[in-house]
Amino acid sequence: MRDNPAVFREEVAERARRCCEYCQIPEDAAFAPHHLDHIVARKHGGKTSLDNLAYSCSLCNRRKSSDLSSVDPSTGQIALLFNPRRDLWQEHFELRGGEIAGLTSSGRATVNLLRLNHPHRVQERRIRLGWVWTRES
Ligand SMILES: [Zn+2]
Fold this sequence. Notes:
Strand content: 15-25%
Low-confidence stretches: 133-137
Mean pLDDT: 92
Number of helices: 5
Strand order of the largest sheet: 1-2
Number of strands: 6
Number of domains: 1
Bound molecules: zinc ion
Structural class: alpha+beta
Largest sheet: 2 strands, antiparallel
């Protein structure tokens, strides 16, 4: 029963404030419900447990798949992907306009693999951010 990720859904969603832990899109702004991502995929021995689950939008989840690493496009070196349970988002990424800049090898590899700056996603983020800024100012 505890191997069923659905058991953890509410806890994982609440912890992530219902935003994707990779691209930060809130679930209510996404076109489909967010998924529970196994950070270390089950095929690599990852457990279905709170410390191995992340809240992920369907786009990030599909792009990440079971990968653990990718290539940092600026160095050509293999880098571990961003791990929301181990890493702080602000240390690896920075929001610049609607784009997400990778600040570290891990950040850049993750931006690239998950296509966080696909034009549609950037546009969606800009619209969303504009709305937040307007609302908070
Ligand atoms: Zn996402």
